[in-house]
């Protein structure tokens, strides 16, 4: 039934974004309440009062996480945070989540409780309520599906398709650390596999490992933007790497962009780990993914206001579409941005130099 | 990390409902908008206008469906319908869904398209919009997570914990067919496995197979109850078998119940298939599951109004708690109802006589 070899298109040839485009092309919103469907960080629904913002993510063991080094408590926390990050990226405030899990009999009640410890902790930290979900068995492995629901006043929502020429491009925090944290964890796992008597050597990698295992969503930035009277012109969260997300904004908005390598925020610990792994830190920031920082654009007129907010870096500006999407390197060269971010149907691209 | 054998509680000892109780006991709703959390067919959220109703389900290949006999198109349709059924069971109207899938490289684009064909068809039939989701790879097998969102006026919502003594117990349609449809499909699969040259013999089983592969949610009943000015006193959809759902209502409402075997609606095709399989049709109706009919209670005063609506059967009445939960058999005996419905962590109980 599935395997008509003569008429078979491999998903990896299409890629995740290709598949999403396919699905989107067939959907048509008919209900008046469906404001925004597939194609942003979250869907937007008008239920009579504020606008309701809905985002959902699926996490699969062996694809998105490895329980060899990801404690279940951290996994529960991260599963919630990555969804809340999508809600913040709409400039909305999350209020409820549902959490569904599928688990095989490899997992005990104690294991599930450890997972939910993390879920509850995230709920407490981000002031959201766990209101529902589903529990299922799975043929093998741990499967998680989280849906987050948030709210915003109609005029407060920020989409990804509304950047305009001359807007400033901003990112929060620093980038590339989560990807390098993953490399450290993967390395120590394979060392341990080869020789279980060798203790994992994670010293000096605390920051990047924490960025991988326990990311935070940038609620604080959303709050500070509001306090300072700034409404971004477009926004997206960085789950697949800076390059991929910036391309999303530019394509959706019909613009180009120019960013500067020396402006991309990279933590010293990330630089140092990148050197250890013979990786280029900028490439990790552009293509590594899982940073869960915010990428947004603001009007040029907001420049002075933005500068006052801590932990935001200005990395470039939006150009007209014809100018393309470029990064000016430290050496002064202009290189075209390519989306080498995480693709759910490919192995992660290897950002070696 | 997972396998502390000395302090390990098996999930199968706890069961799905036990696990849900554990999760629920730790959740506390803090946001004013969170009206109802875990413990009904759907969560209820107040977002300023109407009430918003959210339900989510996870379906896992090898646990909830078998692609050997479940066409992907039907699977897409069913995955949507089972979620919409939960929304109707709140007396709400679904408007949006999100669909997340995890697929291995066993699946081609054409296979995914077939699945979404079914999703789109259900969207069209039930007038809901597909507004989002996630696409992921999986280590093996097909994983589906659907979230449905519906709306109702505050005074229209119907919960499961509000049945009262003397209320009439009603069910829609007929029960047990989907379970017997599954038995036919399983039998033909094993025959085919033993001898691939034998063609599957599904003749005479059309109705029960359709009930298994392409269930419908009872939107029509919700509409007719409204038209006739009836608001159920409690309601739940029948996904795990009549007995299990009735026990949910009674436990949540703090009541007992008495139902009559001869009043339980069973289609002649179900009776006939039950005989072929040497099964008791009543047991299939009580414990089979996947009927997606509605079980609800109404005030005694609504008796005449209810009788006018086609496709609703009165099967008994709510009693005080002390009287327990009983079924009066055709032979006149009183038997206690037990929840032998589908348990996600157990194999399905075998309802042989």
Which helices and strands, and how do they pair?
The structure is a homodimer of 353-residue chains.
Chain A: H1 11-25, E1 34-36, E2 43-46, E3 51-60, H2 72-88, E4 93-103, H3 109-126, E5 129-137, E6 143-152, E7 168-172, H4 177-194, H5 206-213, H6 219-227, E8 234-238, H7 242-253, E9 255-260, H8 268-276, H9 281-287, E10 293-298, H10 303-307, E11 312-320, E12 325-328, E13 334-336
Parallel strand pairs in A: 4-5, 9-12
Antiparallel strand pairs in A: 1-2, 2-3, 3-6, 4-6, 7-10, 7-11, 8-10, 9-11, 12-13
Helix pairs in contact in A: 2-3, 4-5, 4-8
Please describe what this structure looks like:
The structure is a homodimer of 353-residue chains. Chain A is of the alpha+beta class. Chain A folds into 2 domains: 125 residues, 2-Layer Sandwich (60s Ribosomal Protein L30, Chain: A); 169 residues, PurM-like C-terminal domain (Phosphoribosyl-aminoimidazole Synthetase, Chain A, domain 2), CATH 3.90.650. Chain A is 33% helix and 24% strand. In chain A, α2 packs parallel to α3, α4 crosses α5 and α4 runs parallel beside α8. The radius of gyration of chain A is 20 Å and the shape is globular. Chains A and B meet through α1, β3, β4, α3 and β5 of A and α1, β3, β4, α3 and β5 of B.
């Amino acid at each position: 039934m599935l395997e008509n070899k003569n008429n078979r298109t491999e998903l990896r040839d299409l890629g995740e974004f290709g598949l999403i485009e396919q699905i989107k092309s067939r959907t048509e919103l008919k209900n008046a309440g469906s404001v925004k469907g597939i194609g942003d960080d979250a869907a937007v629904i008008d239920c009579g009062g504020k606008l309701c913002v809905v985002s959902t993510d699926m996490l699969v063991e062996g694809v998105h996480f490895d329980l060899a080094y990801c404690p279940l408590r951290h996994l529960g926390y991260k599963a919630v945070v990555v969804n809340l990050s999508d809600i913040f990226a709409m400039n909305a405030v999350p209020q409820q989540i549902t959490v569904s899990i599928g688990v095989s009999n490899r997992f005990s009640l104690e294991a599930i409780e450890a997972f939910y410890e993390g879920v509850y902790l995230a709920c407490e930290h981000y002031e959201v309520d766990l209101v529902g979900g589903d529990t299922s068995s799975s043929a093998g492995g741990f499967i998680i599906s989280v849906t987050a629901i948030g709210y915003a006043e109609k005029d407060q929502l920020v989409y990804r398709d509304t950047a305009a020429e001359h807007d400033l491009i901003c990112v929060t925090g620093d980038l590339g650390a989560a990807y390098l944290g993953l490399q450290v964890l993967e390395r120590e796992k394979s060392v341990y596999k080869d020789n279980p008597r060798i203790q994992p050597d994670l010293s000096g990698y605390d920051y990047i490992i924490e960025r991988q295992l326990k990311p935070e969503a940038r609620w604080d930035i959303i709050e500070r933007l509001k306090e300072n009277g700034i409404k971004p012109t477009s926004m997206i969260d960085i789950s697949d790497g800076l390059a991929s997300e910036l391309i999303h904004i530019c394509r959706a908005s019909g613009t180009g962009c120019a960013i500067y390598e020396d402006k991309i925020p990279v933590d010293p610990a990330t630089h140092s780990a990148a050197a250890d792994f013979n990786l280029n830190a900028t490439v990790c920031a552009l293509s590594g993914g899982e940073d869960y920082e915010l990428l947004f654009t603001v009007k040029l007129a907001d420049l002075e206001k933005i500068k006052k907010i801590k932990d935001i870096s200005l990395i470039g500006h939006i150009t007209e579409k014809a100018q393309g999407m470029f990064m000016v390197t430290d050496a002064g060269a202009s290189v075209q941005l390519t989306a080498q971010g995480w693709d759910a149907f490919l192995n992660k691209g290897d950002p070696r130099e």
